[in-house]
Amino acid sequence: LFLLGTGVVGGTLLKIIKDQASKLFERQLFNLQVCGIANIESMLIRPDGIELNNWQKTLEKKGLNIDLDSYCQQAMDLNLKHSVFIDCTASDQTSEWYPRFLKAGIHVVTPNKKANTQEMAVYKKLHKSASSRGVKFRYETNVGAGLPVIQTIQDLISAGDNIHKIEGILSGTLSYIFNNYTSKDSFSAIVKNARDKGYTEPDPREDLNGMDVARKILILSREMGWELNITDVDVENLSPVESMKAKNIENYFELLQKYDDQMRDRIGKIEKSGNRLRYIARAEGGKLSAGLKEVDSEHPFYGLQGSDNIVAIYSDYYPIPLVIRGAGAGAEVTAAGVFADILKTISG
Amino acid sequence: LFLLGTGVVGGTLLKIIKDQASKLFERQLFNLQVCGIANIESMLIRPDGIELNNWQKTLEKKGLNIDLDSYCQQAMDLNLKHSVFIDCTASDQTSEWYPRFLKAGIHVVTPNKKANTQEMAVYKKLHKSASSRGVKFRYETNVGAGLPVIQTIQDLISAGDNIHKIEGILSGTLSYIFNNYTSKDSFSAIVKNARDKGYTEPDPREDLNGMDVARKILILSREMGWELNITDVDVENLSPVESMKAKNIENYFELLQKYDDQMRDRIGKIEKSGNRLRYIARAEGGKLSAGLKEVDSEHPFYGLQGSDNIVAIYSDYYPIPLVIRGAGAGAEVTAAGVFADILKTISG
Fold first, then answer.
1. Under an 8 A CB cutoff, do B322 and A322 touch?
2. DSSP assigned state of B63
3. pTM reported for the whole predicted model
4. What ipTM score was computed for the predicted complex, to two decimals?
5. How many CA atoms are closer than 13 Å to the CA of A24, on its beta-carbon side?
6. Which of A91, A144, A241, B152 is the least crowded, having the fewest Cβ atoms under 10 Å away?
7. Contact B320 A332 (CB under 8 A)
8. pLDDT (tens digit, 9 = 90+) per residue, A238-284?
9. Annotated catalytic residue within A113, A136, A216, A293
């Protein structure tokens, strides 16, 4: 295994590998070895495996200054059997390396969405690099973290199912906000509260602009063979236009407050009808959208709580939808999902 | 592929294979060939593959009288590369062959629950036959048909998660009955209605005795490493004791009617408190149970509709449960699940 990125997900993944590798070895299944660790500062390659009990110290003391190209090239040049490259960064530079890895027979596992949201032509080339060589490119954690969303769609499609519609609440932040927002609250206060609880990005505009959700529904639609790009998603930005220019977060919240009354009117009307407001991503009839939608009590998203993600798949086989729900973000569930992808890759 | 059983699931599976094999071949992924088809009457083996456009006629005309041992032995003797044996029967004789197939390097895929509910010692031996040889034994459709329940549990366990509790509504029949039963109805009439709609077995006692649900929660608990047997499941039988002796179905429903008032009292009290009644399988604290439980509006099973199955997994990684919901029975979803298992087996 060659890991890039040792942040919350990469770090938790190393913990899981350390704990599970010995069990897999005892059961004579695999001998997992982490042969490379790199982050934004340093890189370390050890063909015989890196001792994971104190990789931080080893990386600090023995690591070289990071050079992404050199790290990737070394991983390839070593030409070790059953190599897996694991990209736990949010960078878009790394995805340029994926086709090269795949062509060299190195599997790629990643929670990073960049490669799968690239321009369609590049995306197709990448996926062809994997499938034509029997090399694996796995990215279950691109959508819903550890929830089995992508594999389920792939399984249905490969068994000849015809998916009519996919709907999802694909942002933990927007899930939390609309599971809690009522006409008694001010919208800006709910957003502030979500930020204080650590549910949002440091700059909540990155959640409220809906682009992360748009990228996720694009990825799911591409699993169905739809040839669309990110610019084809009709996205509702929940931050008012002028707030995009806000100098700082305080200033942003002041601007957001101006829209509290408008939002209160909207939620008030919906409450009266007994319905609820949800930020929903949708793929249907060849069109992709992400935005606020009203749902009634019969809808599978009506009773959502906390900051859960939820996905509903409507198809020939599942006219009443197949629904998957649970935490869709967080270091543990994401790292566990990446680890499951690694095991599926090497157990092949 | 060697198929045993051409009933609703096996027959639908052959339809899916016929439609999908050419697509997989065009994409240069696999060349799927069905080299054996057998059912309760006939068997046919063709090492070069059976033409699937009219397998029924070929089997009828060219097939030999069924001899299970001879069919299985021939599948082994042919010694074809990447052989997969698919058991779409409900028989318990076939599972005796699984360890022999696995030892011979033949993968086994099945929706049949018999092998996985055998005595613990036999179960362990069977699973060891697979894991120690890197041969696959896949049975995702044992629980919830095509819903990704077993794989999800396996993924969590292998990533070091600690599952505290699994709860499920694992019978489409019992789901339908309790999603529809209110104090305005008589319980026996609801059961009759479910039978008329084709939701129950021809003899509804087979659904109402809870044993099918008990087998499913046993299988899930064994995925967590619990070493329990079917006799360890505390099962509530919904048919009154004396009805087990009923001579025929009419007589059974007469006996069931006697308990309508008692059941109406029970559901009436629960309705008043705002709760609902569900037939729930549960694995928690080393104990397995299947029976009627009251759930409040916060419970993930409260809003269940139709005849859906639902499973909730509570763990260290998912303190708020991971929930999977959808059709848990039916020819199409089961056959699609079996097909997905076949693809995962051979794409390894």
1. no
2. P
3. 0.96
4. 0.95
5. 22
6. A241
7. no
8. 998 888 888 899 999 999 999 999 999 999 999 999 999 999 999 99
9. A216
